[in-house]
Amino acid sequence: MKLASTVFTDARSLRSALKGLSSEDLLALNGVIEAIALERIEEEEAARVQAHERQQVIADIKELLALECITPEELLAFTRSR
User: Where would one find coiled-coil regions in this protein (predicted)?
Assistant: First the structure.
């Protein structure tokens, strides 16, 4: 969040911006921020898992191609000719 990182560069400026809020409001805001952070963590982890799985599929395919002595160039030429 660029706004938060540029406006609230330290705890003092954040306190100043939030001084009009009650402790209940601050706790509610904290809960919302934590929920958003947890969602983001889950999304990032899912993306990491997906990327890892994709890399594993690519590695498996490369291994199969190597076992059949097929070069990537041959495979590309074959797929282009179809």
Answer: none
